[in-house]
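A protein record pairs a chain with a discrete description of its three-dimensional fold. The following entry can be read in just this way.
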Amino acid sequence: MTAAAGGVRPDEGALRGALVCVLGVCLALVATAAHGECALEDQDARDLQEVRVEAVRGVDLLQLHDGRHIRLLGLAAAAPLPETATVVRPLRLHEGLRAALEQRLDAADRRLMLRPGQPARDAAGRLRMHAWLPDGPLLAADLIAAGAAMARPGPELGPLDDCFDAAEAAARSAPRGLWLERPAALPVAALELRERTRPAGRLRLQGEVVSVRTTSRHWVLELDGPLDVLIQAVDREHWPAPWPDLEPVGLVGEAVILRGQVYPWRDRLRMRVRHPLDLEVVE
């Protein structure tokens, strides 16, 4: 068992949170979508425009080389967590989606094929566009199927919404990306001290606290590996009960699970824990 404070992150994707699909049905949906109206070859060439992307301005906002700004249709950045899980993913889930979008655009030499959506503009006056990669996949459906995003229905449902739904159903059933269950904790002792370049995402680590250093400003938990955990007083002040009463010395000898960004610090590695859900004591 693990002890953790706080609640479960709210379901930011309620519109799609109830979607349930067994594997066979999901595969059928994907097959139908792939051979229906999802692929570039299924589109009327008269409705398409080839463009180059100058920059990614958000998870679904692109600046084109010709100066226009467009909004990609079908993407929602957030995904619900399982009801029984604590927070194990970055709170800023959009960062993963933006990185996946950048990666696909770079692989396609920043080229896209666009088709206007219905309605043609959003409330802010930006052009709403469906986008395909030059080799055929519907870009939003590709990102959703990889688990990088949720499907977002438009104000006027169209055939391509079925493509997004099928892609999300497949990602849920796999599960992939945002739909993964809690990942296994990596032993702290497995961290490589000399590996200075690390991915931008958070790690889930498990180790034993071997000593604790305390000051009026912070605690530093030394683990059985090259990692120290920093817990600052300014962060602890906002933790809900019973964590404000936690005595750091009581953690010595305890196995803990931690979540956060690992970074080099002097001759060791360090992780700053800012929230009680990112520190679990294994019982």
The first helix runs from residue 14 to 17. Residues 1-36, 79-92 have pLDDT under 50 and may be disordered. The radius of gyration is 22 Å.
